[in-house]
Specification:
Protein name: RING-type E3 ubiquitin transferase
CATH superfamily of the largest domain: Zinc/RING finger domain, C3HC4 (zinc finger)
Number of strands: 16
Distance between the termini: 42 Å
Pfam family, one: zf-RING_2
CATH class of the largest domain: Alpha Beta
CATH architecture of the largest domain: 2-Layer Sandwich
Structural class: alpha+beta
Shape: elongated
Radius of gyration: 22 Å
CATH topology of the largest domain: Herpes Virus-1
Order of helices and strands: EEHEEEHEEHEEHHEEEEHHEEEH
Helix content: 10-25%
Number of domains: 2
Membrane topology: Single-pass membrane protein
Oligomer: single chain
Family: Belongs to the RING-type zinc finger family. ATL subfamily.
Strand order of the largest sheet: 1-2-7-3
Strand content: 25-35%
Keywords: Membrane, Metal-binding, Transferase, Transmembrane, Transmembrane helix, Ubl conjugation pathway, Zinc, Zinc-finger
């Protein structure tokens, strides 16, 4: 499945992301949910039975209908109970049984939690450092920058972790693509303009974005079969963490020549007028 999701929250230390459906019907998306080829996976999942019942059938109050799936003749429900739906409600029909990524405290399918294992930047987050790739052709990472004098050690990170990732949340929370591959060479991007729980007002207020006409003056390149990129750019977009594919269009930042997917960097530049990696802006 491909499409656009909204990012509700990101935890960079735990490497977890919470997503929801912009149409407010995540349950419908779950019925065709397939993460094969995606860098994301559920931390753990629960087996749900989705079923429909005629509107004249009255179910116990513990069963809440999924309103966005209901129609004029039937109501839709989901249960994780091991009790047989067929035996309890003989006039109802099972739609599908599937494992649903579980989010703590969310029993109405308003959002789901996924995690990513690679690239792993936890060690950099613990030391308040930036994370980058060692080579263009791998997901192996290294920590960039120097630790500032007097900075807290990783031993007290659990107390102050929310402050250490604010800068990263501004970048990754603004634009993240969930790319699910339909074939080895064609990826469908899903760009989400995120509403981040950590200091959303301050981040938006501090943003100074560019208009589209200015953004269009930045150089664009369509990648060939070799996917060759200028300078020290790797094969992975630093914003969405997906590999570049042939025939995809990338945009180069002036001054530093850092590259990003067009759909990723354009969203960023409308909110922030500088390169998300080095913070350089056109003079």
């Amino acid at each position: 499945m491909s499409g656009t999701f909204l990012v509700r929250d990101i935890d960079y230390y735990k490497q977890q992301i919470y997503i929801s459906d912009p149409e407010n019907c995540l349950a419908k998306r779950l019925l065709t949910f397939n993460m094969s080829g995606s860098p994301f996976s559920p931390s753990f999942s629960i087996l749900y039975t989705f079923f429909s019942c005629p509107n004249d059938v009255v179910l116990p109050s513990s069963y809440r209908s999924i309103r966005c799936l209901n129609n004029s003749t039937a109501s839709f429900y989901a249960t994780s109970s091991y009790v047989s739906v067929e035996l309890m409600f003989p006039s109802c029909q099972i739609v599908k049984r599937l494992h649903v990524p579980y989010s703590f405290g969310d029993m109405e399918f308003s959002s789901i939690m996924l995690e990513w294992l690679s690239p792993n930047c936890r060690s950099c987050e613990m030391e308040y450092l930036r994370c980058g790739f060692k080579k263009k052709s791998s997901l192996e990472v290294k920590c960039l920058g120097a630790k500032k004098p007097g900075q807290l050690s990783s031993g007290v990170l659990a107390v102050t972790i929310s402050f250490s990732i604010i800068g990263a949340v501004s970048l990754f929370g603004t634009c993240i693509a969930i790319r699910v591959y339909n074939s080895p060479r064609q990826r469908h991007s899903a760009i989400a303009a995120a509403t981040v729980r950590q200091q959303p007002i301050e981040l938006v207020a501090a943003a100074r974005g560019l208009d589209q006409s200015t953004i269009e003056t930045y150089k664009k390149v369509e990648l060939g079969e070799s996917r060759r990129l200028p300078g020290t750019n790797g094969i992975i977009c630093p914003i969405c963490l997906s590999e570049y594919a042939s025939k995809e269009t990338i945009r180069l930042m002036p001054e530093c020549d850092h590259c990003f997917h067009v759909e990723c960097i354009d969203v960023w530049l409308k909110l922030h007028g500088s390169c998300p990696l080095c913070r350089n802006s056109r003079k």
